[in-house]
Records
---
Amino acid sequence: MTRVMIVDDHSIVREGIRILLEKFPDLMVVADADNGRTALEVAAQASPGVVVMDTSMPGMNGIEATQRLSVECPSARVLILSMHKDKRFVAQAFRAGARGYLLKDCTSAELVHAVRSVAAGEIYVCSGIIGVVIDDYIKRIPDTLQQGEAALTPREREVLQLIAEGNNAKNIAFLLKINVKTVDTHRQQIMKKLKLHSVAELTKFAIREGFTSLDN
């Protein structure tokens, strides 16, 4: 049985969510609150497993309440239920300790699924914002690669993969139809650009960055 607490400043929203969740025998609404500050006080008594939390509320908003709950009531996992799909809200929510983020235009089935997922210890991101999360992640990738693989030429990337897959210079030369000295030059350039000093370090880098895998 998952003990659920609902935090929203609109009573009709709290009532609607309660009616919906209590249709399911594995979910029990044990408390509700109309703002973040009250939620902290009530959660200490009700010991919810999942807190369905709005973000915009008077007095103490849902982000601040989530951060406080993660310290004062760590067993309560917060599922944000918000009208905001801006990435700043999403990032703030997860940084505060939320375990899930759901938009208020979701279906009732999705809300129930999200509550169960968060109760099971999973991270839940609804379909409405998953694109926002992925876009933001992709934009950050070039920054992390600027000093690494992004500096390599396409040929160097080929050589790196073949080195990581256990090929010696002679094999690589044969596969790429180049001479062994050229392979050695590529290897030296790769090491210089990546600031690595051995084949073992090259292999670790190649696996970590997805050039190859341990299965190859």
Note: The first strand starts at residue 2 and ends at 7.
---
Amino acid sequence: MIRLVLTRLAGFVLTLFAASVVLFVTINVLPGSAAKSALGIHATAQAIQRFEAQHGLDRPLVVQYAEWLGRTLRGDFGTSFQNGVAVGPELLKRLPVTLELATFAFIIANLIAIPLGAWAARRHQKGADRSITFLATILGAIPNFWLATLLVLVFTLTLRWLPPGGFTPFTVNPVMNLKQMIMPALSLGIVSSALLIRIMRASMLEVLSTDYVRTAEAKGASSRTIVFRHSMRNAFIPYLNVAAVEFGFLFGSVVVIEDIFLLPGVGSFVLVGIINRDYPVLLAGALAITLFVLTLNLLVDLIASLLDPRQVKARSS
């Protein structure tokens, strides 16, 4: 197990380094000028030169990356080109909002996917299975921003049950916080549940076809016992791996949803960085999302190995 953890940590560090290189190069070689975005389209050539010299943008890309990496490792993400605000503290302030939204959306996705996926597998090739598979196809085809707009139209403009947007910290007003979070979380969670339904169904089908489950059925075990006692645990192993990736996808796909519902999270912060070509904001936001996704995948990989000791034995042999 120790060998597995060390191997995974080494892979984590190498992947994070490779991701940082790709992010830095991609953001810096994209068309557009950070100086013109910050100074305006009527900025003179001299003003642009001064701006680029002030922020080190006139130096070779390798030198810029080395300096940025050194500062980032010390916890300094730089300052915004637009307003001079330190990026690190601003990112930390917004991180709980995005984390709360992604967590709510993930809970909603799993509340939909796990029972429906398990039920579809238990009713394989019957009406319930076909209906759930069709529903998953429909949900997977819906863009989350379209669903968000529809929810606002129904629950805010028509029924007037929920506020159109904004954010109130949970510690200040829990009820208002939940009211403001429910529609963004539903927009993300319902769409994400489509993939998870299919994964849960496929995992359960594989487990239900194994010999020990058939033996339990032959001994007269109830459907509830077969599903919850004999099948769920093994079905969760492949499901967890995909769910972790999906949670990371949720965390990284909040940009549009946060903008629609005026949530001050990492996504809206990154969106402003994209519009203004604010490199420090873009790099910090993208790196934070990458770090979160990689950490989550690492933890889930280790948990899956604990749930299935055969993986540890196979890797150590």
Note: The mean pLDDT is 87.
---
Amino acid sequence: MAVGIIAAIFAYGALGTLVAIPMVLRGVNRLDPAAADGTWGFRLLAIPGVMVLWPLVLIRWAKAGRS
């Protein structure tokens, strides 16, 4: 049971990393035009938040891509 929970946490984190890197590099420009001029420090600080909230970020990124 514990091994399954830990595996799920690692899988969630791995998926979060896969979403966070392209989101920080390109996606942030679509979600918030004001963030397009964000510094690398801002983008580095956004990575942990995107990793944790990746399902919500992915939904917003998909909706922003349609409009």
Note: The chain has a mean pLDDT of 90.
